[in-house]
Amino acid sequence: MVKLRRLRNAEAYVSPSIGSSEDLEVPAEPGEKQFDVSEVIEMFGFGKYQWKVVLVMGLMSFADSCEIWLSTIILKMLVCEWGLSTIEMALIPATVLFFYAIGSII
Fold first, then answer.
1. Beta-ladder partners of 36
2. Of 1, 44, 96, 104, whose CA is between 20 and 30 Å from 22?
3. CA gap 33, 5 in Å, rounded
4. pLDDT tens digits, residue range 74-95?
5. pLDDT of residue 53
6. Would you tell me how many other CB atoms lie within 10 Å of the CB of residue 5?
7. Do the beta carbons of residue 26 and residue 15 sit within 8 Å?
8. Rounded distance, CA 13 to CA 42, Å?
């Protein structure tokens, strides 16, 4: 669970913590109200921007899974067309996944 507290300039301070429930408390000044993430979402709402982000991320995930699915179909055709060995056949999807990993780092 992440606790939030309101700052003087109306920004939220996020304190992620791992461990017991005592570790989840954010040091607050006396009289300062602490907010839970669900309370913040209730306060600010889930608007058009958040729905756009969900839509874009969903479309990106769909495109990524379609690419991997199509590569398996194309791979079967390439094995017949080019006479690939099992090692060469395994290198094609491994190379794709390797460059996915490199791309996620960049």
1. 3
2. 44
3. 7
4. 888 888 899 989 898 889 888 8
5. 92
6. 17
7. yes
8. 17
Distance, CA of 18 to CA of 3 (rounded, Å): 12
Between the CA of residue 93 and those of 67, 68, 69, 84, 101, what are the distances in Å? 11, 8, 11, 13, 12
Element (H, E) at 91: helix 86-105
The b/e string for 43-69 (b: 16+ C-beta within 10 A; e otherwise) is eeeeeeeeeeeeeeeeeeeeeeeeeee
Q: Write down the residue that tokens 């056949």 correspond to.
A: 89
To which H or E segment does residue 5 belong? strand 3-6
Extract the tokens encoding 53. 């982000």
Phi and psi based region of residue 15 (left: phi greater than 0; alpha: psi -120 to 50; beta: remaining): beta
**46 to 14, 60, 74, 81: CA distances (angstroms):** 19, 21, 41, 51
Give the predicted TM-score (pTM) of the model: 0.46
- For residue 13, the model assigns a pLDDT of 45
What would the pLDDT profile of 35-70 be if each residue is shown by its tens digit? 788 888 888 888 899 899 999 999 999 988 888 888
